[in-house]
Specification:
Layout (H helix, E strand, L loop, with lengths): L1 E2 L6 E2 L7 E2 L1 H9 L7 H4 L5 E9 L3 H18 L10 H13 L14 H15 L6 E5 L12 H11 L7 E3 L6 H13 L4 E4 L1 H4 L9 E6 L6 H9 L10 E9 L3 H19 L8 E2 L4 H13 L3 H61 L11 E3 L2 E3 L2 H18 L5 E6 L2 E7 L7 E6 L3 E6 L3 H13 L1 H25 L7 H23 L24 H16 L1
Parallel strand pairs: 4-9, 5-7, 5-8, 6-7, 8-9
Antiparallel strand pairs: 1-2, 3-10, 11-12, 11-13, 13-14, 14-15, 15-16
Helix pairs in contact: 3-4, 5-6, 10-11, 11-12, 12-15, 12-16, 13-14, 16-17
Length: 560
């Protein structure tokens, strides 16, 4: 079920609903695309605070919405010539009505219009940020500037000027009709000379770099694509903005086409979010991400009918809880995998390494004096060196010989303090070498170009054996504690399971009622959408055993 386009009721509609076999689809897609989302890049952009401003329609607007419903019903039944009226015309009229009733009839007063509410909000911000000379963007795609007749741009400019804003601080992007004029206009906004910039997505989307002083952005109407909203908000949520926090205002007129518009955006974003995501794909997916949930919340605000609003709010809540449940289950599966595989494997490795270090420590202590001082000894290429300088030079020459030969594998070079000494060339394109001291275990050391310094590095690596043993033992204790915690966590159930069950049951009741109303043939004397949802919300009927079961689950969730 979905909101009808005319905004006056609900209807059944079959649509493409979900993707299946997402892992395979993503494999094909990523052969040609590299996905980088905002949560992956973590760019230093300002934090956005969203404000949804809901306008109550006038009685005239309500009558117009009912008239749109009548026209839509006539079109669906084939009672009207498509050349005289069709759903495209109804949709356009619905969008105009939601934005400003004067777009339908200029003689109306528009007392409670979006333009007036936007001007009030923008003027308040303008006065509060006078010292900072902060700027604001106002997006409106439907009603662009015109020379004759009513348009929202001119109306907004008029109301801003009546509120005290100088005309020079207000600009339309449409007046900058060349690249040079755009560059000049953008510079004025960045300097704070222009405080209000009004435009459409097409003209003020990608390439509009005016973010320096932007403090607020206003959505007057709803574009057709989620990418348009992303482009609009990308003008303010951008690197280089001097403000740490910005405000985004979304204006919706209750009970009008706005609800259907936000519904379209929500449905489109749902599919986009399943593909353009940083998360690992699952076998099938219809979950919502934060953007989709945000659009759904605005859609609910735009629905005037109380039970439709309740259904939409429950849709959002149930989807959010299911998403939390899915994430909880995913974490639970990860813990089960860790208990079964990762922690035992990690403990086995640590125990083996501990045993190796415990054997190597006395080996080093027995021949520790060979690492420095007058008793220094090192064997390199069957020759024993008692002085550090020639020994260090010989070690470097052995490394360089490996590079000349093109060898990149570990090669035995000699013996140091009872440990076999191996060296290798890290790269054929640079003078970078590594050494490895092998006893029961192995200990790698990065070598430099200082002959004496390399010998010191070998000595220091062996000196760290006691600390290395302590670190391994501490890591074992940490891993054992993590294992015990995981065993406890994996036995817990989803903490909001009772809440999810209760809201899902209420949603099922509303869906059945709305589905029955949507399928019922409307009475000709009844306005479309009227009388569908006027009664009080029906209480959920449960048997005594069901009530006891639900209460038990709530208590169990609370205890957990």
């Amino acid at each position: 079920m979905e909101l009808a386009p005319e905004g006056s009721g609900y209807r059944n509609k079959t649509r493409f609903a979900r993707f299946y076999n997402l892992p395979e689809l993503m494999t094909f897609f990523k052969e040609r695309a590299d996905i980088q989302t905002a949560d992956m890049l973590q760019l230093p952009v300002p934090k956005a605070e969203y404000h949804d401003i809901v306008l109550t329609p006038s009685e005239l607007q309500k009558r117009m919405v009912r008239e749109l419903g009548e026209r839509a019903e006539a079109v669906r039944k084939g009672n009207v010539d498509p050349t005289k009226d069709n759903m495209l015309r109804i949709t356009t009229d619905g969008r105009k009505l939601a934005l400003d009733e004067r777009l339908i009839d200029e003689r109306l007063d528009g007392t409670n219009s979006k333009a007036r509410r936007c001007a009030e909000t923008a003027l308040r911000i303008w006065k509060e940020t006078m010292e900072q000379k902060s700027a604001q963007l106002i997006f409106c795609d439907l009603s662009t500037p015109r020379k004759d007749g009513f348009d929202v741009y001119t109306e907004l400019k008029k109301q801003l000027m009546e509120g005290g804003v100088p005309e020079k601080e207000i600009a339309f992007i449409h007046d900058a009709n060349t690249d040079a004029r755009k560059t000049e206009l953008f510079a004025k906004v960045r300097r704070g000379n222009v405080r209000f910039l009004l435009g459409s997505t097409a003209k003020m989307g990608a390439g509009t770099n005016v973010q320096d002083r932007l403090i607020a952005l206003h959505h007057l109407d709803v574009p057709w694509k989620p990418s348009d909203i992303e482009q609009q908000e990308g003008r303010i949520l951008r690197q280089g903005n001097q403000n740490e926090k910005v405000h985004i205002y979304r204006y919706v007129t209750e009970g009008t086409f706005d609800g259907y518009s936000w519904q379209l955006i929500e449905n489109k974003q749902r599919f986009i979010s399943q593909i353009m995501t940083s998360k690992s794909p699952v076998r099938s997916c219809a979950d919502l991400d934060d953007s989709t949930l945000s659009y759904a919340e605005v859609k609910a605000l735009a629905a005037g009918n109380p039970e439709i609003k309740e259904k939409m709010e429950l849709d959002v809540e149930v989807s959010r809880l299911k998403l939390l449940q899915a994430n909880y289950q995913s974490q639970k599966y990860d813990l089960e995998d860790a208990i079964r595989k990762r922690y035992p494997k990690q403990l086995a490795y640590l125990k083996e390494t501990e045993a190796q270090v415990q054997k190597d420590l006395p080996r080093y202590m027995d021949r520790k004096e060979e690492g420095s001082g007058e008793t220094f000894r090192i064997k390199l290429s069957e020759a024993v060196y008692a002085e550090k300088e020639p020994a260090g030079q010989k070690l470097l020459s052995l490394c360089k010989e490996l590079k000349k030969k093109g060898e990149q594998d570990w090669t035995l070079a000699g013996n140091f303090c009872g440990f076999k000494l191996f060296v290798k060339c890290k790269s054929m394109f640079s003078d970078q070498y590594e050494a490895k001291l092998c006893g029961s275990g192995s200990y790698e050391v990065e070598l430099g170009d200082d002959a004496l310094g390399n010998l010191t590095r070998l000595k220091n690596e062996l000196e760290r054996l006691p600390k290395h043993l302590e670190d391994i033992q501490a890591a074992q204790q940490d891993t054992l504690q993590d294992l015990e915690r995981a065993k406890v966590e994996v036995t817990k159930q989803f903490p909001q399971e009772a809440e999810l069950l209760e809201k899902q049951e209420r949603l099922d009741v509303l869906n059945r009622r709305l589905d029955a109303d949507a399928n019922r043939e409307p009475n000709r004397s009844q306005e479309p959408g009227e009388g569908l949802l006027e009664s009080e919300p029906e209480p959920i009927q449960r048997s005594a055993s069901q009530r006891e079961s639900l209460q038990a689950k709530k208590e169990l969730a609370f205890c957990r």
